[in-house]
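Session log. Operator J.P. requested a structure for one protein chain; no other inputs attached. Running the standard single-chain path with token output.
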Amino acid sequence: MLPGAVIGWDLNAAMGLAAAALGIPATAAAELLPIIEAVMVQKMNEQMEQ
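Structure written below.
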């Protein structure tokens, strides 16, 4: 954990949301979520630096 920085998502929760709320197949979510997470963490940390 880093104060003032985002280091990642709870991917178990994200997988549950992808499947239950969005109807995305688990295999697709497992492939796409890590890529999406990396970009979102980078962008969130950039915004917090400003």
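Operator note: Helices lie at 11-20, 26-49.
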